[in-house]
Design goal:
6 copies of one chain form a homohexamer. Chain A is α+β, with helices and mostly antiparallel strands. The first copy, chain A, is built from 6 helices and 9 strands. Chains A, B, C, D, E, F: Its EC number is 2.7.7.56.
Chain lengths: 238, 238, 238, 238, 238, 238
């Protein structure tokens, strides 16, 4: 029934390659099917003004798409002179989600910026960004711990994200672009590896949904995040 | 336990005054406690390019805050030269939510723009904007129906929104500003009067939450929306 | 002869309601006929760089219109990414006019920002903003005096503004929108309650005027400001 | 008493050199003392959308200052990414003033843009821009008349502008920069050569003024405009 | 003598991988040492207004760097709200250079946009962009030829670019970042495979150079472009 | 053969008038045929952050065109809200070129900004800006030396620029606008008075060129710069 022939609860093949750029303190290229996102982590000693002197750390994110990561070319946001609403919404979500999984006292007063740049898009770029972004973050933090700059691990439980939706009347896991553009309901679920919830966003596009359907999507999401967390752990230990 | 002395499942007093500006096709001033939002609806014959000629209608929204609607003065976005990320996120949510409750075929090829301007803020401005915005929208559509420009009612079920969150470890309904700024988990629930879900957003701020807690918040939200829908119906029939 | 049936030298009904928002140090809603402007005063300890350390105070103003305050919807300036020329011209006028009526030594080194937001427009918004802005300013200063932060009153004489113009060949007081859009000559007169001049702007739209006509408009303006100053005094003493 | 040693009612030396750039349809370099402004007129067949098809012409203006036209270097507005409030206020005034002196029916459906670029500033740049701008405009219109594109002269009476103010307690004509920066009251008077009024702006800087003083300034302004109109006529006939 | 141990006339290892993204009409990832640039070509039926109806084709380019492509993180241009001067200079150079090597009559009235996004930077990104950009362009054009949309090949001779400079007093080929940041003279040489010149830019940084040195750099550049052209041909035939 | 009737190696008449504005520390109006550029130098005590405390000086440049300096009116960059790519490219070139001719140790830790504003354009504005800019710079430095603020002359050799190109198949010196818009190859050559090279830029427009042609253009450029340097020296000694 799914365009890709996948089962309703089957994710696309996921791979995470780490150390893909020599300059960043942490980096990976995550591939969720044909969605490819490059994630890098940059450590900086400064924090935003509102937490200066608090001893707390900060994690923030920026998101972008290469102009031809999509089927037809998108205008370059730098050339348009501003980031679109969708970009801003997504990068706020990535930052918030990753921050929720960090012990900011343990991190100490420093900022880590996660850049998520979509190289190729086929649906689910925000979820891939969060999942890959956590890996880049973890690698950067490991470097701080090896150097003795951070003592207690501020990242004990992975943060991963997956989309689920109602496609052709059925709840399905991990929407690809053909499904996403047709889905009546579309949700993003961000959880820890131990299935604690961080952020849940469900949205009807020209329809409505019931609480039962919401619970079915939650079930699928838990399955997906469980699989992603294993892949994340394998990647950071590789 | 709540700063305001309210019960856990008690909303703030809500009022909706309609017809508050002489120029708009529909308007209301919604007060949810000390949060006051002016909502106006503007009917225009043109639609966005991507649906031109489709026969479908469009509903969109813009959101703003008066500079001194808040405790300390915020910089005016027009003077800063751009809308902030929070503003963009909120107005996209309002537009999406109201659109989900509209029969766009019945509306016909025209656009209705809902402007939500916060006169005084005390938490929950986006929810008040959606709830009041629906009333302004309904009044504008009624005008179209009275004029015979729209035959079948495109708005049969109200759309309302309420926030719930975990405050001091307890699930509470309708967060005000003192609660919102302290809440560990914060959610916005947009539903129809008949409790169909349109959008659900739950977000942990520096913590995580369980699926049980999520369900408790859903229960509270259903209660809140039920009350709001009654007030909306009374307002449009006044 | 006037569309509203008013006498040539008759102002629209004017009311000033104070204390309309709980956050601002001073606030009022001024109604001049169907023109409604919300004015708030914000006290801040900092002053602009060019008077830092001088001991002098500063008063500045910002002006905005709600998108649907007008007959047809105006584009939101925050969304357009800049304030229009008319907005900038008006807010500079408001700031300059109010500043001229302040004893800046008595105010002391602090800044008061007056926000004037037009809720509903029917001509004369800049004059209503100045007249209402002075009331908000006065209320904020009274708070400073009650707290002992300001000893000697820096606002001894009200500042009020009124428009006059040549409509259908006749000098008229307090132009409303139907008159304003037809007037050949249009002027704004800002004076103190004791009829000292602060700013006079007269402008011909596609015509010219004589010095005699100018004097007739001045006479009308003096009458109008006298009435406004009484209403201002009543409002601040309420 | 004046820093320059001029009499109270004495203008600075004024010269207008025409034909200073080979590309523009009309051009002049006006010098009012050490204030030098280059004015060019550009004729274009298109008019703004709001008068399209009306048969009426349009005159508009833009104003700029070279970065080092002033004592200390000003930041280039193009580099800052926007025109400042003062620039916008001034160019609106220039356009409005020149437009008031044009028979827009006789001009026919075309637009003339007057660019006023300050080469060297010493006070009174907006007045010099209007006075010189009228000359550039007249020269461009003469070209249209010679070509038979315009039959009846749309510019029968010059438009000129002069500033007057209260300096050291005395009313003075044609403020230069040292006077302007000290003046308690400062006004710009735009009139036709036959002393019809087009725009009057008087503004108190940290003080107030009486109606008597206003009349004294008007008297001075009439004298100044009379002198300027003679120089304009000589320039266009040269 | 060179930090990398290369001979004076030795290029870094160069590889070009084609078909790296599924959406673009042509694409490659070019690696010149540690400088990695992703190049994509997008074919669109429209051309810029100034050649509309001429029958001629157009080639243009855009350039960007991922924020962490560099040693320390650069601010994202989309977030800053504009492209920097260096970016604009580079993308104009890429577009101009590629255009010079195209038979625009043979291409026909269509536009091809080359996007060059730097994944990792180590000096020479603009040269790598041109060399890789030509490959992406060639692949897109081949697709048009296979489809019969273009009959005669508009790209008969490759366009490639290489930098040369005076480093530590010696002329060297293909500057990497450590050399580039120290070089007294730095040049970019864009040529066809048959050594016809398209663009030459030589620039002294805090020094000057002689015509003899210029000729030595030209000799090196010819050697470098010869090698690059072979790699380009191999890549497009792979 | 040339539209102007000049010989292939003949420059347009060049004049440099100094001291053209009373405010700038150095200024000139350079005329190269009908290309007229006003150049001013501003001395400021501050330097850019990246050299603060180094004891080194800085020279930078900004470039602009009056809207009607060209055949048809260009939009004002300040009104468009940004400098175009061409402007940015040119002002970076001017700054880089002038900086290369300065002994920054001798200049001392101060910044000199060269503003080049095109009053009338007829081709070669960037070259005229560099040649005239050097004169303004030299005059400002002379003032510093006279005041004893700079001891050893940081500007011992003039910097001048000239364009050459292939027009109608022939190498020609100093392209004017009619030639520039037709030339197949176009170059800018920036050298010192003693013919040391500072920057060379050659660019083919829809064609290619040979190394022989490049050498012919270099020969012409050397002749042109020699003549310009004499005129510069005369101007600064006048």
């Amino acid at each position: 029934m799914r365009p890709s022939g996948r089962d309703l609860s089957e994710m696309r093949p996921v791979s995470i390659e780490t150390g893909v750029t020599k300059h960043a303190e942490g980096s990976c290229l995550i591939k969720v099917g044909d969605t490819h996102v490059m994630c890098t982590a940059t450590i900086e000693p400064r924090v935003p003004p509102f937490i200066k002197g608090s001893g707390l750390g900060w994690v923030t994110a920026e998101y972008g798409m290469l102009p031809r990561s999509t089927t037809s070319r998108m205008r370059r946001e730098a050339a348009m002179g501003k980031q679109g609403g969708r970009t801003i919404e997504i990068q706020r979500l990535i930052g918030r989600s990753l921050r929720a999984g960090v012990d900011r006292v343990a991190l100490g007063e420093r900022q880590i910026t996660i850049d998520c740049d979509v190289i190729q898009a086929d649906g689910g770029t925000r979820c891939a960004s969060i999942t890959g972004g956590w890996v880049a973050l973890k690698l950067a933090v490991s470097k701080l711990m090896k150097a003795g700059d951070v003592i207690s691990d501020p990242l004990t439980d992975p943060v991963a994200a997956v989309s689920c939706g109602i496609y052709a009347g059925q709840p399905v896991l991990d929407l690809d672009y053909p499904e996403d553009s047709e889905a009546g309901v579309d949700g993003n679920f961000i959880m820890t590896g131990s299935k604690k919830l961080i952020e849940v966003q469900m949205s009807a596009e020209g329809s409505v949904f019931s609480r039962d359907q919401m619970n079915q999507l939650m079930d699928l999401a838990e399955k997906g995040v469980e699989e992603l967390a294993e892949i994340q752990k394998a990647a950071v230990n590789a």
